[in-house]
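Reopening: structure tokens for the magnesium ion complex, inputs below.
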Amino acid sequence: MLRSRDRSGPSSSSRKRRGVQRQIRHNQSLVQNLLDVMEPSTCVVDNRGQIIATNHAWRLAAYVDESGHLPVAGSYLDIWQESVGADQNVRAQISAGLERLLAGGPDRLTIDYPCRSGDTERWISLQMAPLREISGAVLSHVDISAAKLAARTMSYQSLHDPLTDLPNRNLLKDRLRQALAWTERTGQSVAVAFLSLDHFARVNERLGHAAGDELLKAVTQRWSVLMRSGDTLARFAGDEFVAVWPGVGSVAEAEGLAQGLFAALSAPFTLNDVPVSVSVSVGVAAGTPPQTPEGLLLAADAAMSDAKNHGRARITVHSDELQEGIHLRLRTETELRAALLQGEFVLHYQPVVDLARGVATGVEALIRWQHPDGLRMPDSFIPAAESSGLIVPMGAWVLGEACRQGALWRSHGLDLQVAVNLSARQVTHPDVVATIRSALRRSGLPPQGLLVEVTESTVMEDADAAAVALRDIAALGVAIAIDDFGTGYSSLVYLKRYALQALKVDRSFVAGMGVNADDDAIVASIVSLARAVGAVCIAEGVETPAQHSALLSLGCDYAQGYLFGRPVPALALGQLLEECARTLGTASEATPTGDARA
Ligand code: C2E
Ligand code: MG
Ligand code: MG
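Re-run output (same inputs, fresh job):
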């Protein structure tokens, strides 16, 4: 049954009104709750940009200033202006964006802008979306400072060296590009210095990598103070740095600037309480467009390599002649590669004579290049082979061929020890021992039939690596001689350290015998030095009977030189040994009975 209406209660229209009001309050608190659970500081504006609702985060205004509270009513833009105070451009951008949004424009708009909070810079991402039901918009403010900082750090790291904080190779190229573009307007040159620390690996080996890192930082400090604003000092790689001076007037001026960096290293550094001295090899180049950053770096790098090749600790300025030399070397390298493949190399052999017995007991294998234009001597191609690394396969061929020939002579009753020259690159190559072992095994030459010659500078260049290699070579039973003795770094320490069989007196001292008293004294002391370390002494470059008899009377053990025979192909050695025996005045015991041919 229907109940009758209570006519004494409120009218139906006022009840409806209260219901609607309740609904509005309910909706408002729903919106408010929704806003409040939103983490970013958020407000709602009406169609005139007036704030009509704000959330908890907004009221705390944490994103602007922890001390202040943002007004919860009024014009959004005015409040923004007052509290954030970012620049006018950002305000104009927000104003225009909001206008488009309220006019029914895009569904979403994001504007990122920086603002300051005390001393720190913060980044806010303002995200705006329309609220069509009320013809207004929701505006949220997300703090993106951490993300911005991370992005900035990443971009910094991608352009800087983490150890020294200097610009890295990427930034260097960019700076060089800018500097070259700038000179186009000023008519001046950009100067570049390529700096490579000398023997840096030794610091790492002796004091450890941490000390090596300290040294790099200390060097950076000394150099950084010499750079003017606009100059760039970059870490190129490992122990290599590059200085860029935009706007120098001449190469001489560039050289003067490089001299400053060079001199800055003259006082020793202190690492682990140990004084450490380090020098630098510097290559200088200057240029203007159309020179490219890469071209300028290559030119300075080539000049630096030249400084290294000429004994390090010096400055070399890039020049046309240097460039010509580089081209020549590159051409030679290409030709050498082809020559190696086509078998254009041969070995010539020069007898080594036992002075007391008056017989040839060994030969030195010396490489020759049968170039289509004529026979080429080692001095004209060994340097290119060394710098290109081709010396390694070339040297392996020499070892194989010399051992094969030595074994062949033995099979004909000719017992000659074959000497083979090893260059520094070969000695420090990890495969050196395996290469020698395989040459012996393949040829059947006993190890005592082989002697390897290394120069003093090879031994000193990378003393630790050389020590290991020479010890292992000696362990094979192969003899070791120090070649050109007396011309290199005179450290007597290695004479004791290595198992040496022979010291070869450089021919420059032999040439001066009987003419220059100093040379007589030097040869005499090398003879006794060899004896003291249990090695034999071999004199090189003996050309005259006077030198021969002087060496005999000094008690020198062996000799080699034009007097006894020039280097000849294997086929001609038999005849040469007969002539050699005549020169020595005795019939050589080693003269072959049969035909000792290749
Ligand atoms: P080296 O090992 O000191 O060889 C001795 C050089 O002196 C040879 O020059 C030889 O021909 C020359 N010579 C010998 N007796 C006399 C003499 O009485 N008077 C004069 N003026 N010179 C004499 P070569 O053959 O031109 O070799 C030069 C250098 O090239 C060698 O010096 C050696 O360091 C290097 N070399 C030669 N062959 C090879 C090789 O297969 N591998 C490597 N890595 N280097 C080699
Ligand atoms: Mg030699
Ligand atoms: Mg020599």
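The chain has a mean pLDDT of 88. Residues 12-37 form the longest helix (26 residues). Marking as resolved unless the reporter disagrees.
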